[in-house]
UniProtKB/TrEMBL annotation:
This is Lipase, hormone-sensitive b. It holds the Pfam family HSL_N. Residues 2-318 form the Hormone-sensitive lipase N-terminal domain. One of its GO terms (molecular function) is sterol ester esterase activity. It comes from Iconisemion striatum. Transmembrane segments: none annotated. It comes from the Eukaryota.
Length: 337
């Protein structure tokens, strides 16, 4: 499907249009030809991983490991390219077809596919350098440093621009875009304010956050700029920046604003559920039940930290059993529903 949709669009846009439309058409042709080259090179690599990645699963009942995840992300990227190619095929004759915009879209996914191809080659090297069935290096010989250097040389900005969150469900992408825009806008103003306010403690985040509101617009309308700035921030800024960014919502000003504008919920309790199995009655037959085992990971079982939020107080939410699971925390939190 990928080859056919690319070949059809390449044949259509190779007609030799002039002006800006001609330039966009040439960019589309170039991007689709390059996508075909990447896909052709990826076929044997993905087939090779598909034949062996079951050896690295968590256990026979949980088919999950990093190799599977990487292959799935590559397939998601290819599916997005096919979807975009079919959209172009359907709408390319329309008077409202935006050739330049679609060219930028295809170029972005082409760049993402190129970087995923590089990641697959790194993973393939890791697979070959390790002994059979081992995820980690048995004999270092400088391999870890080599992998870090090669990963650092990759261009990761394409994953934070137009392609942000392509591997997730579409419903979560607006949230990811909002976070990315807020992060790069905050990062742009961080160093500018940090030198003058570093000695003033909690004042710095306010000034940076306020300035970020005025600079976030350009990152919303320019995905390429957002991706480039995101890559710069993640590589160059220190841990103090990340602490300042993630603690914005914990400041007294924003907490007070949330308390005034958000709806107060009736139940908002932090719970610590002990790792013990319990019996849950079936909805269809209350006489029958199923045993719920506590979740476990490589560190073993541990208490499950969760939060119970309810707009109304419902039956059982103020019972002694539930109250015994509550854990202490800070002041009350207002949540918007």
């Amino acid at each position: 499907a990928l080859y056919s949709v690319c070949e059809e669009n390449v044949a259509f846009f190779s007609g030799g249009a002039k002006g800006t439309q001609g330039d966009a058409a040439r960019r589309l042709v170039g991007a689709m030809k390059l996508i075909q080259e990447h896909a052709h090179s990826l076929e044997p690599v993905i087939s090779g991983f598909a034949a062996v990645y079951h050896h690295f699963d968590f256990d026979p009942h949980i088919p999950a490991n990093g190799y599977r995840s990487l292959v799935k992300v590559v397939r998601c990227c290819l599916l997005h390219i096919i979807h975009k190619g079919r959209y172009i095929t359907t709408n390319r004759r329309s008077n409202f077809f935006r050739a330049a915009h679609n060219a930028r879209e295809m170029e972005a996914y082409c760049n993402a596919l190129c970087q995923l191809r590089a990641l697959l080659y790194l993973a393939q090297r890791l697979l070959h350098d390790n002994s059979h069935g081992n995820l980690f290096f048995q004999d270092e010989s400088g391999l870890s440093e080599s992998f870090v250097r090669e990963y650092a040389s990759m261009h990761k900005g394409c994953f934070y621009g137009r392609c942000l969150g392509f591997q997730f469900t579409p419903a979560i992408r607006p949230c990811l875009q909002t976070l990315a825009i807020g992060l790069v806008a905050f990062g742009e103003n961080y160093k500018r304010h940090n030198s003058g306010l570093v000695d003033l403690g909690g004042i710095a985040p306010y000034g940076v956050a306020a300035s970020s509101l005025f600079t976030s617009g350009k990152y919303a309308i320019d995905p390429e700029l957002r991706g480039t700035e995101f890559e710069r921030i993640t590589q160059n800024l220190d841990v103090h920046f990340w602490k300042s960014f993630w603690n914005i919502t914990e400041t007294e000003v924003l907490s007070s604003l949330a308390s005034m504008t958000s709806t107060q919920v009736k139940v908002n309790r932090a719970l610590s559920v002990p790792p013990v199995p319990f019996d849950l009655p079936l909805a269809a037959n209350h006489r029958a039940s199923v045993t719920i085992a506590p979740p476990s990971a490589h560190i073993g079982t541990a208490p499950v930290q969760m939060r119970l939020i309810s707009y109304d107080l419902r039956e059982g939410q103020d019972s002694e059993t539930l109250l015994s699971l509550c854990r202490s925390e800070g002041g009350a939190i207002s949540l918007s529903l």
